[in-house]
Specification:
The complex is a heterodimer. By secondary structure, chain A is of the alpha+beta class. Chain A is built from 5 helices and 5 strands; from the N terminus they run βαααββαββα. Chain A has a 4-stranded antiparallel sheet with strand order 2-3-5-4, covered by helices on one side. At the A-B interface, strand 1, helix 1, helix 2 and helix 3 of A face strand 1, helix 1 and helix 2 of B.
Chain lengths: ~180, ~120
């Protein structure tokens, strides 16, 4: 065939320092605006939710992942494909309970908090990377999966690793669909 | 290296958040733009500290502007400034024909009607 093979579009990368510093400036500004840690955490989660709902489309367009059949497959894809694509790290996945709907992503190195030495004084319950939780939650909701995403361990708070817990919630109208079939 | 899509979305959310707080009337419009500028200022300070660790001291203002237009802009936006004009009395105009943070919005016709509104503000 003489038709030239269409080249895959080049996906642009940006300077990692720029991204990490921008995130740091955002958190610093939020700490100035809100007195309570819970408010900052909530705002970061909300921002992350907005980002996640849009990011999932970019992810699905670029990664060509096949349809998943279990929660553990989904968590594996988040860890091995999505994190790798957007942050350049691959967290490890563990399953926390027997009913296989609670998982943990364990990050040895958190790229977002690369320049953070320690949390500021008086901000001990600040979840610095709460944006990540919001992103995962928003992305999952756009593919019709409700989940609770929180930080279980945080290196900045003295734990040895950073652990993000994902709890998949049962869809309320799942049974309805089954009956109709 | 981090991904551009993620940074663009983060930037969008930051601007939207600042815009929303302006709409709610908590602070005057000017202060919200200042918030965004302050965040940018912090980021710029951090970036310059890291980039100029090993470079020589700058001789004069023009040297600094050339560094910003070439090295700094290339490291941050992967391209150089397209046009630098000056009146040799302290005023410099930097022109970027394809600013990375805005290309997504300026590419199609979707936001064309709002673009002209932004100019007049």
């Amino acid at each position: 065939m003489s038709r030239p093979v269409p080249r895959r579009p080049e996906y642009q990368k940006i300077n990692k320092d720029l991204f990490v510093l921008t995130y740091g400036a955002l958190v610093a500004q939020l700490c100035k605006d809100y007195e309570k840690d819970e408010d900052v955490n909530k705002y970061l989660d909300k921002m992350g939710y907005g980002i996640g709902t849009r990011l999932v489309e970019d992810f699905l367009a670029r990664s060509c992942v096949r349809r998943c059949h279990s929660y553990s497959e989904i968590t594996d894809i988040i860890a091995q494909v999505a994190f790798k694509m957007y942050l350049g790290v691959t967290p490890s996945v563990t399953c926390n309970n027997a009913s296989r709907n609670e998982f943990s992503l364990i990050l040895d190195k958190n790229p977002l908090s690369e320049f953070v030495e320690e949390l500021p004084a008086g901000r001990s319950s600040l979840c610095y990377c709460n944006l990540l939780c919001g992103i995962i939650r928003g992305a999952l909701e756009m593919v019709h999966l409700a989940a609770d995403v929180t930080f279980l361990q945080d290196r900045l708070k003295g734990d040895s690793v950073t652990e993000i817990g994902i709890t998949f919630l049962k869809q309320p109208n799942e049974k309805k669909y089954r009956r109709r079939k | 290296m981090a991904d551009e899509a993620l940074f663009l979305l983060l930037h969008n959310e930051m601007v939207a958040g600042v815009y929303k707080s302006a709409e709610q009337g908590e602070v005057e419009n000017g202060r919200c733009i200042t918030k965004l500028e302050n965040m940018g200022f912090r980021v710029g300070q951090g970036l310059i500290e890291r980039f100029t660790k090993d470079t020589a001291r700058f001789k004069d203002e023009l040297d600094i502007m050339k560094f910003i237009c070439k090295d700094f802009w290339t490291t941050v936006f992967k391209k150089q400034i397209d046009n630098l004009r000056t009146n040799h009395q302290g005023i410099y105009v930097l022109q970027d024909n394809k600013f990375r943070l805005l290309t997504q919005m300026s590419a199609g016709k979707q936001y064309l009607e709002h673009a002209s509104k932004a100019n007049f503000r």
